[in-house]
């Protein structure tokens, strides 16, 4: 499974390292603890939008640029994941087969496992 927080952390770390800055410098500028920033960079903590904004400001990089880089990496990871699947996995039926009644028998009421409303509400 591809973890978004890990991809985001990798991108933030690369941005910081490209600038030759330390965790301590960025954490002070972003007003976030050094330990927490380290956990975000390692993908161990989810950064809130406010925290991500503060880190991007401290790195003097637009959040949209960071998110675009994360999106690009996510696309590549998904493609790699798809390439690893076998043809059987790709052709696997999405719906479960339903047992049809024998000719002349009445069809019982079909009870769906999940209604469309349930899926949307979830």
Automatic annotation (TrEMBL):
CDD domains (UniProt xref): HTH_XRE
Q: Which residues form the HTH cro/C1-type domain?
A: 12-66
Identify a single GO molecular function assigned to this protein: DNA binding
Q: Which InterPro entries match?
A: Cro/C1-type_HTH, Lambda_DNA-bd_dom_sf
What is the source species?
Kitasatospora viridis
The record's Pfam families line, in alphabetical order, gives: HTH_3
Q: What is this protein called?
A: Helix-turn-helix protein
Biological classification of the source = Bacteria, Bacillati, Actinomycetota, Actinomycetes, Kitasatosporales
């Amino acid at each position: 499974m591809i973890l978004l927080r890990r991809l985001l952390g990798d991108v933030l770390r690369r941005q910081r390292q490209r600038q030759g800055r330390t965790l301590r410098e960025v954490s002070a500028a972003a007003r976030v603890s050094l330990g927490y920033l380290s956990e975000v960079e390692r993908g161990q903590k989810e950064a809130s939008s406010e925290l991500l904004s503060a880190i991007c400001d401290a790195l003097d990089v637009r959040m949209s640029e960071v998110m675009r880089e994360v999106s690009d990496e996510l696309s590549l990871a998904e493609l790699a994941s798809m390439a690893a699947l076998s043809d059987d996995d790709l052709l696997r039926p999405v719906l479960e087969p339903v047992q049809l009644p024998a000719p002349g028998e009445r069809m019982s009421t079909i009870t769906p496992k999940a209604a469309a409303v349930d899926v949307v509400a979830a």
